[in-house]
Design brief:
A hairpin with an 8-residue loop joins strand 5 (66-68) and strand 6 (77-81). A six-stranded antiparallel sheet has the order 1-2-3-4-6-5. The protein is α+β, with helices and mostly antiparallel strands. 40% of the residues lie in helices and 25% in strands. The longest helix is centred in the C-terminal third of the chain and has 18 residues, at 88-105. It has a single domain, classed as Aspartate Aminotransferase, domain 1.
Length: 118
């Protein structure tokens, strides 16, 4: 997976928007104004995603490409390196997990609005 295919996948998720709130080097993907993925455009080989804390530990133990979130809350965020042995399917699953966690944290009304468009 590269930055372009990652961007395409994120934008395919219902209600996703993108912006650059931290400057031109970091692209953020949001659902309902909450970030579910950050990617550095400078390096382009890693991204940060939210993760259930127990699953985060498991993934870090299983895959060298999964590390505690760089510049993030390390309990709830992982940094994923795309240039390792993880498949595109595994990367998409981690992105979708993050998207779902953030969507579920939104107010019910907003969740319903986002899902209604699907």
């Amino acid at each position: 997976m590269n930055v372009e295919s990652l961007r395409d996948y994120c934008l395919s998720l219902q209600g996703t928007t993108e912006d650059m709130p931290f400057g031109e080097e970091t692209l953020a993907f949001r659902i309902g104004e909450k970030i579910f993925l950050l990617i550095s455009l400078d390096t382009g080989n890693r991204f940060n995603v939210k993760c259930d804390p127990e699953l985060a530990v498991q993934l870090r133990e299983q895959h060298n490409e999964v590390q505690p979130g760089y510049h993030m809350n390390k309990k709830h965020w992982n940094t994923i390196y795309m240039d390792g042995n993880l498949s595109d399917k595994q990367l998409r699953e981690m992105i979708h997990h993050s998207y779902t966690l953030v969507l579920q944290s939104l107010p019910k009304r907003l969740q319903d609005e986002i899902r209604a468009v699907e």
